[in-house]
Amino acid sequence: MVINDSDDSFKIYVSAMDGKNRQKFTIAHEIGHYFIHYKDGNPEERETVYRRTNHAYGGFTEYEANVFAASLLMPENKFKKSFEIRGGDLDLVANDFGVSIAAAEVRARTLGLLDNNG
Question: Are the beta carbons of 81 and 35 closer than 8 angstroms?
Fold first, then answer.
């Protein structure tokens, strides 16, 4: 969750219950919201979007923040190189980037390295 302060700064809070890799992705995701949506957003909408605690909010805004996070944590060229070197072993690739296997799988599919059958 991103909390915007009155001085236009922000704080990101993550759950202590989440693992380190999940926390890392959450932080990158929220940074995505800040740069993609908050900086250019409508001031009246900022409170609604960024002071949310309901994670059911979704749609294109969440998709954009996820793409930002994946790109930040798993840059395309480095990811493709790791994927090739590791023979497509997503466990090893995920470990290279300090992300979950699920995040690495989504990134691999997004980059066309995996099809829907694996």
Answer: no
H-assigned helices in the chain: 20-32, 43-50, 60-73, 76-85, 90-97, 101-110
42 near 7, Cβ under 8 Å? Answer: no
Residue 66 CA, chain-centre distance (Å), reads 4
**Pairing outcome for strands 10-12 and 2-4:** antiparallel
**Residue 12 · residue 31 · CB < 8 Å:** yes
pLDDT band at residue 53 under the 50/70/90 scheme = very low
61 burial level (CB within 10 Å; 0-12, 13-18, 19+): middle
Q: Which of 30-44, 59-73, 86-100 has the lowest mean pLDDT?
A: 30-44
Q: Residue 38 above 80 pLDDT?
A: no
